[in-house]
DNA sequence: CACCACCCCTGGACGC
DNA sequence: TGCGTCCAGGGGTGGT
């Protein structure tokens, strides 16, 4: 379940592996996963890999941009020449025989590779997404990507200002947790980090957004940045099958509340409560997080 | 307009 | 061991 730290880790590892490389052609194995012309990056050298919230953009040197959203189960892997690829890549029709022969084979060893960007020199970038909650959106120019997708998002969680967050919260009666999960309010937070954030500042997840004052919004932003930064420094959180673009696991496991319902709060030792807020499993401390 | 329930999808955990 | 069932959850959509 990649959230901002995991997506930023993918951005960095992918960037190191592919910036400056030429995309020779694009294999798309599931049309419904891609919106727009999948081959749009073909013939362009990768100039930069950007991120806004949980979305990535691979940008070509002539301006083409491909937006990738990993959803729940998506991975984006940079496969270097001579390196084993993703499970299942061996089963792809029409793939590079050399690349295929190097990949693990076996009966249904995990296919679900939907798009492969082939690079000059034999490498590749592969988008795999078993549950298909993610997707790929191709544009002939980055400006169009920004207008069509990123304009609707709030400021990135790493750069949002206290004033910006306060503005996003004060107009809503929704639970503050629901608002923080809303990518139009702030982009990049998901269920894990919202629970961690609310616990860190001692705020009840069901507080109405509009009741969060300017000082509390500042507290949220001041807690958010180090929380996300520490997770990025650790390469993100590994739950289930998250991997960065180089196939590495995250090492951030310092969850204080997520997944710990019923266990003692690390701050006050009270049993953490588990409930549903905004349709999401929510864990919080009834004692530390007043509301 | 704001908000919520529902749906999409598959793999892993768990119970019998 | 094997099978069935439930659950995870971001975001889009359609209903209230």
What share of residues are in beta strands? 15-25%
Largest sheet: 5 strands, mixed
The counted number of beta strands is 13
The order of strands across the largest sheet is: 2-9-5-4-3
Average predicted confidence as pLDDT: 86
- Radius of gyration using CA atoms only: 20 Å
Helix content, binned percent: 25-40%
Q: Would you give an account of this structure?
A:
The protein has 291 residues and is of the alpha+beta class. Strand 7 and strand 8 form a beta hairpin. The chain is elongated and about 55 Å long. The protein starts with a helix and ends in a 7-residue tail after the last strand. The chain binds a DNA duplex (16 and 16 nucleotides) through loops.
Question: Which key phrases capture this entry?
Answer:
single chain, 291 residues, alpha+beta, five-stranded mixed sheet, four-stranded antiparallel sheet, 7 helices, elongated, DNA-binding
What's the arrangement of secondary structure elements?
Layout (H helix, E strand, L loop, with lengths): L3 H15 L4 E6 L5 E2 L10 E7 L2 E6 L4 E5 L5 E5 L17 H6 L10 E7 L4 E5 L6 E5 L2 H7 L6 E2 L5 H9 L5 H6 L4 E2 L3 H11 L12 H20 L39 E5 L2 E5 L7
Helix pairs in contact: 1-7, 4-7, 6-7
This protein binds a DNA duplex (16 and 16 nucleotides) through loops.
Summed up, what is this model?
With 291 residues, this protein is α+β, with helices and mostly antiparallel strands. The chain has 7 helices and 13 strands. Residues 90-110 have low confidence and may be disordered.
């Amino acid at each position: 379940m990649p959230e901002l730290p995991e997506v930023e880790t993918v951005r960095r590892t992918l960037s190191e592996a592919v910036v400056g490389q030429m995309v020779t052609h694009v294999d798309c194995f599931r049309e419904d996963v891609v919106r727009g012309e999948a081959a749009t990056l073909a013939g362009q050298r990768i100039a930069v890999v950007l991120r806004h919230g949980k979305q990535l953009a691979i940008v070509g040197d002539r301006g083409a941009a491909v937006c990738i959203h990993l959803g729940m189960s998506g991975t984006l892997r940079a496969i270097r020449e001579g390196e084993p690829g993703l499970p299942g890549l061996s089963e792809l029709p029409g793939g590079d025989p050399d690349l295929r022969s190097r990949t693990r084979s076996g009966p249904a060893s995990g296919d679900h590779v939907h798009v492969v960007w082939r690079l000059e020199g034999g490498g590749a970038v592969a988008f795999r997404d078993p549950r298909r909650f993610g997707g790929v959106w191709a544009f002939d120019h980055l400006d169009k990507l920004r207008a069509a997708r990123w304009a609707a998002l709030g400021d990135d969680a790493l750069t949002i200002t206290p004033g910006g967050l306060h503005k996003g919260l004060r107009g809503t009666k929704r639970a503050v947790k629901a608002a923080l999960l809303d990518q139009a309010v702030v982009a990049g937070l998901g269920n894990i980090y919202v629970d961690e954030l609310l616990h860190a500042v001692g705020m009840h997840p069901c507080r109405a957004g509009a009741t969060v004052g300017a000082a509390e919004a500042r507290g949220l932003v001041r807690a958010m940045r180090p929380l996300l930064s520490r997770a990025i420094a650790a390469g993100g959180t590994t739950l289930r099958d998250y991997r960065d673009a180089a196939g590495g696991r995250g090492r951030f496991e310092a969850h204080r509340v997520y997944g710990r319902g019923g266990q003692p709060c690390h701050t006050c030792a009270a049993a953490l409560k588990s409930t549903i807020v905004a349709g999401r499993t929510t864990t919080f401390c009834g004692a530390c997080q007043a509301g």
